[in-house]
Structures are given as C-alpha cells and as structure tokens.
Amino acid sequence: LDQLKDERERGITINIALWKFETKKYIVTIIDAPGHRDFIKNMITGTSQADVAILVVAAGQGEFEAGISKDGQTREHATLANTLGIKTMIICINKMDDGQVKYSKERYDEIKGEMMKQLKNIGWKKAEEFDYIPTSGWTGDNIMEKSDKMPWYEGPCLIDAIDGLKAPKRPTDKPLRLPIQDVYKISGVGTVPAGRVETGELAPGMKVVFAPTS
C-alpha cells in the first residue's frame, strides 16, 4: 500500500492511505495507518476515522514478543484504538509462512492466548469474541479464502470476517457534523476536503457551514 518514495525506501508506512474495495456484503474503505512510533500522529489521525480495527501482529519468534512488550507497537496501537472509541477488532496473526513458524498451530495458539490476555488488560472487554486469523500477507493464506496449509484453523478468512461484522448504527437523526481530516487540491476539480460524517447525513446539493472560519 505504500506509495511515497520514502515509504518504499524505508520499508515502513509514513502517511495514511485510503483504499476501497467491495466484499459480498460491504463497500469497505481501508485506512492504512503507519505502525512506526515516529509517525504515531498519522496513525491516530487514521484510526480516529475507523469503525473497526484490523490489528496485524507478526508471528515470527521475537517479533511478536517485542510488539507486546512495555514499549511495543502492538500494545501501543491496541491501546490507542481502544482510547479512540473503536469497539471491534480483527486480529491477523501474520507471517505464518515464516521459516521458524511453519504454519504452526502451537505458535498460533500461543499468540492468540497472549493477545487475548493483553487486550483484556488494555480494556477490550470483548477480546474473547474477536476473530484471531492466522494469515500470510506474502502468500495470501487466509486473506481472500481459507488456506489449505492450516487445516487446523476452523475460523473465517479475513474477507469473511469483515463480512461477518455488524455495521455500526449512525446517528442520522442529528445535525450534520463532519470533522475535516485533510484537504486535497486536485487539478481540474479544485479544493476537496475529506473527512467522515459523524452525525447527520450529507447529500449532493446541500449547503454546509465550515467552522471556525478564522
């Protein structure tokens, strides 16, 4: 998903990126948020717009343990998502194709148990109800369809887990409130503000007021 030259050269996400796709049930907008702590402000900006969090943790030996340590990024991001009001999370236990992991059920069970405990301690009261999906972004295992390399896993693949989510209820009966996340200048179009409708409804032809104006 990384588009910026610096992102590709450093191998990390710096700015948030939006990508849209359709499942059998939903039109989904993915907000790709940076994981590196140097760009935590951008991560907060992206997460504040989301309805659901997809937390990707590495299954590799040492990688997962570093992420859930006192200053680990996994712990930090799970805490921020909870603080920002997200109620539902899907956990992708990624890199199951790693040479040390080798699609191991034992490693999956170990990480799932530890993540469940960590999430509960952070404040995710429904951590036991979340989907914990063993995946490989590199080989596509359990992303679009169930993988035959992990026959022991009986849960959904990522796309099916997304379709299994309940769409949040929107307060459409209240006045329109749309916090501006960013402003884009598009050639031939003009200035395009972007954000998420928090309350009310937005329709073509509506007159809106921006505040504050100074």
UniProtKB/TrEMBL annotation:
InterPro entries linked: G_TR_CS, P-loop_NTPase, T_Tr_GTP-bd_dom, TRAFAC_GTPase_members
Domain Tr-type G intervals: 1-172
Pfam families linked: GTP_EFTU
GO molecular function: GTP binding; GTPase activity; translation elongation factor activity
Keyword Protein biosynthesis: yes
Domain of life: Eukaryota
KW Protein biosynthesis (keyword) present: yes
Matches recorded under PANTHER family: TRANSLATION FACTOR (PTHR23115)
Protein name: Elongation factor 1 alpha
Organism: Giardia intestinalis (Giardia lamblia)
